[in-house]
């Protein structure tokens, strides 16, 4: 059954078959067929997009899930959006459940803010609206000069906890670092559970000199400033030994985060929780990137189950590690597409969501 007005076209921009599953689920929920388009790589690795139906005067939604070849994924998206623009589409909405390069959203020494570059490229290509989910930093929305709807996967993960984790009332929500404490607090308050925070782990590269103000050389240059002026040096950080703030003894530990990519920190957190007496350990996140040998490390670790959503394809990782479970979020994406196309309010999808969620 078609749940939308006429003039809606949904394209999937992925050239890889395993990445099209989410697009098919969304189209089925909306009762429409996926638009006819060819996306493929030339012999010289150039991306070619050929739209095979008219989009003139229509609302086009381009769904793109990020594959392992993230740079090709971005080019597929940009070329398809530009093709729709030059074909006189009325509006072009990008649906990127996981926004690529979202971790590179802060200045590090002499680096660059790549998220801002990606946002500018998408707007320049012709995007008029963006639907995404659980941005790594909510401030990324400010990089765009178009409307951005940053949906949340937490209702689906909370539902999974309540329905699939036996005796979840005996659980404690764990933040594997102080930086993820707000997310853990949000989960704990909604489930009426306690919270624990792991502090003192090895410093992540992401939190190392993120604001770019470390760029001046550390050697003294007396000629650059007045001899009577001495700029005090900031004392370097030194983290204490690993400690767990909160009681996890005899409890189920549920570690929550937004992205699972390099799992070393999750494995280390699970070992620490086991040592403190937790008898079962779950890891829950929105985006399961699970790069390199993450499935093997999870399988050999103290983690009992890893729960992620299908914002990214990870069927291969699930075959390698049966501990990985998937939660389907196509329902909220299809509803967002329906509301935008029909001109309805999006506030229903953000009910009970606070600033810190």
Automatic annotation (TrEMBL):
Keywords: Acetylation, Phosphoprotein. Residues 9-126 form the Ribose-phosphate pyrophosphokinase N-terminal domain. It comes from Solea senegalensis. This is Phosphoribosyl pyrophosphate synthase-associated protein 2. GO terms for cellular component: cytoplasm; ribose phosphate diphosphokinase complex. GO terms for biological process: 5-phosphoribose 1-diphosphate biosynthetic process; purine nucleotide biosynthetic process. One of its GO terms (molecular function) is ATP binding. Binds to PRPS1 and PRPS2. It comes from the Eukaryota. CDD domains: PRTases_typeI (cd06223).
């Amino acid at each position: 059954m078609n749940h939308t007005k006429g003039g809606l076209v949904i394209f999937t921009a992925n050239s890889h078959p395993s990445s099209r599953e989410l697009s098919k689920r969304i189209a089925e929920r909306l009762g429409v067929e996926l638009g006819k388009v060819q996306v493929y790589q030339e012999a010289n690795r150039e991306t070619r997009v050929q739209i095979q139906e008219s989009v003139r005067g229509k609302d086009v939604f381009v769904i793109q899930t990020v594959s392992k070849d993230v740079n090709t994924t971005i080019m597929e998206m940009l070329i398809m959006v530009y093709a729709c623009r030059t074909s006189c589409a009325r509006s072009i909405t990008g649906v990127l459940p996981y926004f690529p390069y979202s971790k590179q959203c802060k200045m590090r020494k002499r680096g660059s803010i790549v998220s801002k570059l990606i946002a500018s490229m998408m707007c320049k290509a012709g995007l008029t609206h963006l639907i995404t989910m659980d941005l790594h930093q909510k401030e990324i929305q400010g990089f765009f000069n178009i409307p951005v709807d940053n949906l949340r996967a937490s209702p689906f993960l909370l539902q999974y906890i309540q329905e699939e984790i036996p005796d979840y009332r005996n659980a404690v929500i764990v933040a594997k670092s102080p930086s993820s404490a707000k997310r853990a607090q949000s989960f704990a308050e909604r489930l009426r559970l306690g919270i624990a925070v792991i502090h003192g782990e090895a410093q992540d590269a992401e939190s190392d000199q993120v604001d770019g103000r470390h760029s001046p050389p550390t050697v003294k240059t007396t000629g650059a400033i007045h001899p009577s002026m001495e700029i005090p040096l900031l004392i370097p950080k030194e983290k204490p030994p690993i400690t767990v703030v909160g009681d996890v003894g005899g409890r189920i530990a549920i570690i929550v985060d937004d992205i699972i990519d390099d799992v070393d920190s999750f494995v280390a957190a699970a070992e620490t929780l086991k040592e403190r007496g937790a008898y079962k350990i779950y890891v829950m996140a929105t985006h399961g990137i699970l790069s390199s040998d993450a499935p093997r490390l999870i399988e050999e670790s103290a983690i009992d189950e890893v729960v992620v959503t299908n914002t990214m394809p990870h069927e291969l990782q699930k075959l390698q590690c049966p501990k990985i479970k998937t939660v389907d979020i196509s329902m909220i994406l299809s509803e967002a597409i329906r509301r935008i196309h029909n001109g309805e309010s999006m506030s229903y999808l953000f009910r009970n969501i606070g600033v810190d969620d």
